[in-house]
C-alpha cells in the first residue's frame, strides 16, 4: 500500500560527482581502446549499483508538487552519504542496542519481524533506564504465556471449563481477553494497560483481532501467540457494554456475586467494562476488595477505550510491585509500548522507505500532529493560527527572513536541514507551512523541508488500509526530536510515548470559545493521559482527588480532570 507522494520531494542529489566523471572521461579522449571503455563502464555501473542500492526499493508515496526543497539564503544542503543496501540503520546517529537493554527477548528470529530489532535504530537511545526487575517480570511472563497460551493442553482445558459454565477453583492458568474499542491509538493504549494488569494479576493476555486490525502487529511473545483463537465462546464484542449482565459492577449490584463469594461458586467469567462514561471509568475495579474478588475468576473479558494504567498505580495492593517495575513512573507506556508493538513487515516497509527517503539525512526532525474532534470542531483558520503561534512562541522552527534578501547572515546554522513531518487527516496545514518556507528564506540560513505522508480526510476505524497508514505515521512521528500535538489525541500520546519526548500540547479552546487563549504548553511527562479517572475512595465511598495525595500523579495539561503519571 503506497501513500500519496509528498509535495516536497527529496533534495536533489549532488551532481558534482557526475560532472567530475564526465570531465575525467574527456581527458581519456580517443586514446582509450573500446575494450577499456567497456570495462570501465561495467566497473562504474557496479559501483553505482552498490552505492545507490539501498534506494532502489519503491518509495512510499506522498503528496506531489513540482517544486523542490527550498534552499534558504542560497545555501546548499549539507552533503550526506547514502548508505548501501546492506546498511539497515539510517544516516542519523542510531541506538545500537537492539534488545533495548533487555526489554526485548532475544528468542526471536530476526527475519520473523523486521521492525522488532530495527525500529529502535531510528530513534535516539531511551532517556529512561530499564528496571532489571521489569526485565525479570517480562521473561517470567513470556514463559507463563508459552505454557498457558493458545494451542496448549492447559488452554484447551480452560476453554472447556468456560464452555461448561464452571469457574475453576484453583486454575493453573488464568486469562484476560481484550476486545477492541474506538480507533487505533485508543486500542494500543488499552492493550498496554491490559498487559500491565496481566503482569500484576498473574493472567495471560489474549487479544481479539478484528479484520481492520489484522496484519498490523507482530507477535510480541516468543514461541506462542497473543491472538485469541477463533470460536471463543464469548466472542461477540457487540454485546459487551456497560449494561451487560456479566459486567462486574452489575453482578455486584444485582447480588450475583459478593466480595466473599468462593471461587467455585462464581460464574465462568467476568466482564470488565473499563470505558469512559460521563468522563469516568464505568467499572470501578481499582480497590483492593475488588481486586481480591476478581483474582478468583479464571476468565476475564475486558473492553476499554482508556489508558487505565495510571489507575492501577492507585490500587494499594499493586503500589510496591509497580514501584519496583517502574522506578520512573512516567516511563510505563514508553517501555511497555516498545515491548509490545512491532509493525509487521508490510507496515514496517512503509515506515522504513519513507524515513530513509525524506528524514534520515536531516539535522533535526519536528513533528506536528493535528486532530480535530467532532464534539469540539475548530475552524481550520483558527487551528492553523494556534499552531503557528505555538511555533513562534516555542521557537520550534527558525524565523522567516525577507524574501527579497536572499543573503543571510552566517550564524553557524547555515545549510542545516530541519524536516517537518505533519500527521493530519487534512492537507491544509502542510500546504500553508510548506508555503511559508518555500517562499521565504530563514534568518539563520537553515533549510526547512515539509512533508506529509497522507491526508485521508476522515478517520476510518473499520479500514485495514487506513489503520496501516495510521500505524506507519505513528512510528514516523515517534522518530521526531520535537513533537507538537493536538490535545486529547491518543494517536499523539502513542507517538510521543514511543519517542520518550515531552511534547508541546495544542490546547483546546474553552467550550464557549472558538480560539484557545494559550497556544500550547509543554507536557510535564511522556506518559499518556487517562481522560476518565475512576472515582476512588473505596471503603470510604467518597471521591478523592488523587492528584493531591499521590506524589507521582497529576492532572493532565490537556484534560484538566484527567490523570497522568509523572516524575518530579
UniProtKB/TrEMBL annotation:
Gene Ontology molecular function: galactoside 2-alpha-L-fucosyltransferase activity
UniProt xrefs under Pfam families: XG_FTase
Subcellular location(s) of the protein: Golgi apparatus, Golgi stack membrane
Subcellular location, principal: Golgi
A Gene Ontology BP annotation from the UniProt entry: xyloglucan biosynthetic process
Bilayer topology annotation: Single-pass type II membrane protein
Top-rank taxon, per record: Eukaryota
Keywords: Cell wall biogenesis/degradation, Glycoprotein, Glycosyltransferase, Golgi apparatus, Transferase
Family: Belongs to the glycosyltransferase 37 family.
Entry protein name: Fucosyltransferase
Source organism (scientific name): Aegilops tauschii subsp. strangulata (Goatgrass)
